[in-house]
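Morning. Coffee machine broken again, so started the prediction first thing and wrote up yesterday's gels while waiting. Chain of 492 residues, entered below exactly as on the submission form.
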Amino acid sequence: MSSPIIKSIFESLRLDRTNGRAVYLQLADAILSLIKNGSIISGQKLPSSREIAIWLDLNRITVSKAYEELQTQGWLESSVGRGTFVSSHIPKIEPIKLQKQPTSNFLQKAGFIIQSKPYLERRYSASSAQLHLDDGLSDPKLTPLKELHRAYRNQLTRSGFYNKFGFYANPEGSDSFRKAIATYLNETRGLNTASQNIFSVRGTLMGLNLVCNALISPGDVVVSGVPGWNKAEMNFVHAKAKHITIPVDENGLVVDELKRICKTKNVRMVYVTPHHHYPTTVSLRIDRRLELLRLANEYGFIIFEDDYDYDFHYKHRPLLPLASADENGMVIYCGSFSKSFSPAFRMGYLVASENVIEHLANVRILIDRQGDHIMDKALAELLDDGTIQRYIRKALPVYEERRNLFCGLLESELKNAVSFTVPEGGMTVWTKFDKSINLEALAKSALQKGLFISNGNLHRYPNYDVNGVRLGFASSSNEALIKCVDILKGLV
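Came back before lunch.
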């Protein structure tokens, strides 16, 4: 017969016959807790199944099943004729004093130390507000979602079932996607590329992060413009690169400053958004483009060309990408459908020399065995049948109309509070507010009225603060844009 102490321990167990979990599993969990907290120790003999059944008003079979469950997991061991014991392989656990309370919830805070890094702090600006002047996103109502659904569904048919789902595929992306992207870029951007030069990624950020992982070593010099894209800058810091910033003016990156740096430092990579600089939307002037390419050839640095919204240009045919004039393999060109198609779908690509693509594939395997080949093939179908091209032609005049309306409203309703230049393309207006206006307070007040705008903090630097924000117009209807400006007018 078990001791009174053991009896009292087991009689204190509480089982809930109404919670849906099998009673024998509840009992097994309870006994396991006794082992873990040191109430019963390694090698200790447990009460018989008959005794526990009597103490807890259970069927003896239920207790036997609980014991069997714990034996299977290695917590208990049974000896014929001797009884059931706590496994002798479990180290001795000091009982927890009843008066001691846990200091933290392990589900919320790990028991090990995490070295915090300020640049990794999440600073999301997403909002579910009904009205929004966002970072420059597309209107999902114009996106060909039905066509995408059809194309994705086509990939899920059983035709070629094993070839689609039976094994891991190329980390570079599906053959059909790479071929379709190469054709698309050659036709629309003047590139002279082939499928072997295409690499599928899940958006611009993944492409940039992969390039930093694969081609940037600690201490390498990476140059970008100020103001710039915070997420790109975070990647440079995370790669332990030496990040140097140079000014951006009304004609884009000040390449003369880059030239000065190249004379004294070994630059490894220059990050640039020449079509519409982020965040100011200005285009890199042709003479600076040519000089940037010349410097890359002379000093041997990588140009990472982020071309996030090339397809949306209103005034005239846009300048072709730097990659279209690159004859020495110095440019890694990055594009994305996530911005223009929908940010919910992570679809992008890198374009580079074949040996770069091969190297990136070898690095990708370490973190992401392959991309989403089903989505790749669905997008390839939409490119091959012209759906994407038709969507862009359809959306372009709509976004141009919204740009014109929005800029007109800013000029007529907020002319004493803001200054801006009408963008030649893209989906947002770089808007500078009067210095007397606190953008952080304005953003909070606007949100209280149902309007989301950025507080501008991501665009501030130690030596740069123009009190500016990006106000995206493309994702809002004309009626919504009027309401947005009306709210801003009432606040400023």
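The first helix runs from residue 4 to 11. Going to sketch it on the whiteboard this afternoon.
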